[in-house]
Amino acid sequence: MKNVIKSAIIILLLSISHIIFAERQISGSVIATTPYIPGTTTQVEFELQFTSPDFEYVIMTELTLPNGFTPAGTPSDIGALQFNSISNQTISWGATDQSLGVLIGDSSPFVFSIDVAIASNLNGEQPFQYLCIGDDFGAEPHAFSGTSNIVQALNYDLVASEIFGNAVVTAQTQETFQIKIINQGTNDINNYTVEVFINGSVSIGTINENYLTSGTEELVDFHWTPVSTGSIELTAVIIYASDQNTSNNETPGFQVEILPAGFEIIDVGDGTQSLNIVPINYWFRNSLIEQMYFPEELQTTGSISEIAFYYDFIQNPSTSVVNIWIGETTLPNLNEGFIPSGQLDQIYSGSIDYSIGEGTAHIQFTSPYNYEGGNLVLLIERVMETDTYSSNNNFYYTNDDGSHPARSRARFSDDIDFDPSVSYTEGNPLSMFANTSFFFSTEPGSISGTVTDGSNPLPNAIISIDNTGITTITDTDGNYIIQDVYSGTISLTASLDGFEDSYVSDITINANQNTAVDVIMTPITEILAPPTSLTLETSGVNSIELNWSPPANDIRSLIGYKIYRNSVILTEVEETITAYSDTNLENIHYTYFTTAIYTLGESESSNSVSVNLTSATDTDLIITNKLIGNNPNPFNPSTTISFSVISSSSFVKIDIYNIKGQHVKRLLNKQLHSGNHSVLWNGNDSNGNSVSSGIYFYKLQNEGFISTKKMTLSK
Q1: Domain-by-domain residue ranges, the chain?
Q2: What is the pTM for the complete model shown?
Q3: Which residues pair with 93 in a beta bridge?
Q4: CA 465 from chain center: how many Å?
Q5: Distance CA 366, CA 445 (A)
Q6: How far apart are CA 238 and CA 248, in angstroms?
Q7: In CATH, 158-259 is 3.40.190.10
């Protein structure tokens, strides 16, 4: 009912828009893509392509052939436009009614062909005329027309038409690709070569062919075993010295994704119908779609790293954001409602790359999902947005054969933002599901190596494969090994107390092979931290009292403090003393700061404090912007960050970042009076989740003042 209402509204808006926007026009062209050979019956191919405003369609096409071109046989249809009639040199096609058989613009060219008997006395380019009429069934029709040429065939003209083969392959496995070669020339061809390239520059082989008759085509087999993984583009180039038209000697690029050895691609669904419901609905502003896949369909277990859907779009909704969850269930169907996201694992959040026309949407998981052989559940949310798209952005789907009814559910709306964490029960379950490919890693490999500080082995280092929960610990010689790691690209992190975390990314794991990855860790340089929280108070006539706190880091090597007055060393005290009285002062301005003395040297200065002594009763304390430090450091589970600020009209901000520079939490964002302050961080992020051990940074901002320091959470 929602679709019917929405369609009625659209038709009404279209009627109004034709009154307001009468100047809009449909435009396009028809070109001949094959040459003619005089004195023969030739199949000439044409391409029709057009653009138009929304909801404008081509409903009729006429093509008038050149003189000397006589139609022979029945022309092919033009997409959904059916061949109608031939009158002398003019051929017409038309829509069957006002809802079927129309052509929708802004998509791939519509290819059609006509068999024609060609007079022997023709030569050179021969002009033909075309007329295309557009309509939106309710407004005055628009049209475009023009003249184009059919060129005469050359004596020697080989065409490298296109490459056929698997778009997704695995390394170390031989693949066969087929290259379509057409002899458009009037002469037969002897002894030509086809060379195949990766990314237009790296040759990976040649094929020598002996003979191709004029006006015929052949599929040339090319056998190739990929070695490296990744995305590439294959092109094939004809090498033939006598070719008179080299502009068509190279095929369009054929995109190939090479997966690591040990991968298996499982296709579920082979339906040829398309609709805009599953797995994502782009016609409405928000959709929530859930589908189930079953063990007898998947036929294997292992790590799933990617899925693919198949579509036919007239628009590109690549800016829309989707969230995807996956998991397994013992439920046989979705009769009881949606399985909520809280019972599944989120494996993707972001946009999906599409193109106009038919294509494959590949979605790589942010972390692999280990499928153990149960009933698989896939939940996809299209996040609510302001944009909607045409109802003709369709995915290919399959209707269940009755083995698993109620295997899908769908909710979509322009107004309701459906929550993936809710088990919605409204509406009837569906038997349709999107044609889906699953990319499995079924043969695991292993990873091993040695962790050192550059020269010495490091025992008890924690080695973690990121986003998997898989960890191990190095032995007394710093060695580690992790077995049964599924093929694919991974990253790992090495952690050890007293050392900075080390990250290794883009590690390729191959089936039945060990990948060696050695890790060098960098010791955390001992920070010669200064004293913290220095304060000043007047005490009697022309006397002041200084107080401070010990450094926030490990103070085992601390041996004392230096006290500076007006940048000159005033005195040194032992490490157990954290106060000092300065007496018999003159009535002038004084500035104090302290430093910590270690066995390794002297720290930077603490925060400074100032005072103007003008009389026994008139003392003016001066405060500066200063990020003093945090205590304790390292800490678990919480630490106190101390700082001083000068009062201003702006907000004082303190933010926490992880070692990758990602924002973790904003601790403070408010106006403060001049003076010393502190704020507590309990080790949680902005969502209230406890963060992991590691190095973090805290940044103080007050007007133009910015200061950053480092701290370590050690659990």
Answers
A1: 24-150, 158-259, 263-441, 445-520, 532-713
A2: 0.52
A3: 61, 83
A4: 21
A5: 20
A6: 9
A7: no
